[in-house]
Amino acid sequence: ISLFSFLVFLRYQIYYGYPLETYLEYPIIIAQDVILLFCIMHFSGKARRALFYAVVFWVGWYMLTLQKWIIDLAMNLCTFVSAASKLVQLQHLWQTKDSGQASALTWGMSAYTCAARIITTVMTTNDLAVLIRFIIMLILNIWVTATILHYSKTKKTD
Fold it and tell me: Which residues form the signal peptide (predicted)?
């Protein structure tokens, strides 16, 4: 799902002709994921499936931009899915009342990244869908970070 979100976001940026600097990290992240997936499939003896997945990727990549409403809908759905995954993390933290292996530093860096992306989006494209995405992710990342910090302090004092 994460790879799909990256692909949609990258395709969205390209479709609207945004400057390369606003999305340059996404092709690098996607390339890393693709190489990792290929290695996993190769070493598990499923390299033939990689061809199938490559075809599915290229068909999906093309279909995203058949109509404007498709890419816009895909972008909004990816925002929903990303937010849902953070809400699931929050729910798990609340139920267990234990931060476990969750890293406040990692979630804090994610919040910082979202804040930086909000600033760069306002300065470069001012795209409302992208701004809404990063604002929602910023709020949820801060919330997860605060929850992790809360439960890690509770655990230490017990």
Answer: none
Residues with Cβ within 8 Å of residue 54, at least 6 apart in sequence: none
* Inter-residue contact 21 to 94 (CB < 8 Å): no
**Residue boundaries of the structural domains of the chain:** 1-66
pLDDT, one tens digit per residue, over 36-56 is 777 888 888 887 777 787 788
d(CA 46, CA 23): 32
Encode burial over 93-124: b for 16+ CB neighbours within 10 A, e otherwise: beeeeebeebebeebbebbeebbebbeebeee
For the whole model, what pTM was predicted? 0.75
**Calpha distance 36→47 (Å, rounded):** 12
